[in-house]
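Handoff note, outgoing to incoming analyst
You'll be picking up this chain. Sequence as last confirmed:
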Amino acid sequence: MKKSYIVPTNKETKMPDDGFIVSKTNAKGIITYCNEIFIDMAGYEEAVLLGKNHNIIRHPDMPKVAFKLCWDLISSGKEFFGFVKNMSKDGGHYWVFANITPDYDSSGKIIGYTSVRKKPPQSAINAIEPIYKLLADEEKKGGMKASGDFLAKFLQDKNISYDELVLSLQGE
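Most recent structure output, in case you need it:
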């Protein structure tokens, strides 16, 4: 089966100030629930989103190391906070501040994840976008390890943890 690719555009859609995108996935990242705002922002019909991997909305500007960090945290039972540039079906994009938490069955096994996203402040996007560009450039030169090493050094030089950086940019 031939894979089709969406070409990114510069069209940006802003999240509503009071809106929350909510989605749920199984443990492998397959979408099992999405709310109306998610459907609207992504530009896909609900029937298309359900059953697809959440990376259907991954924007190519996003460094892969950001998603590795996310998966490392949530698969170990921790929550993730981060800024994500998502791509809509029409090639446009929208920024979100994401909080992802594991969902557990009655025996304590992770069975999926819930993600709640809201509009980030423009100041946070302005601060994180050049960092993501540097991380993506490092990935192109030396793979995800190089990008991860760059992020670790960046945080060490700032004497701040990843969570502290993200939450300070969000203003929380």
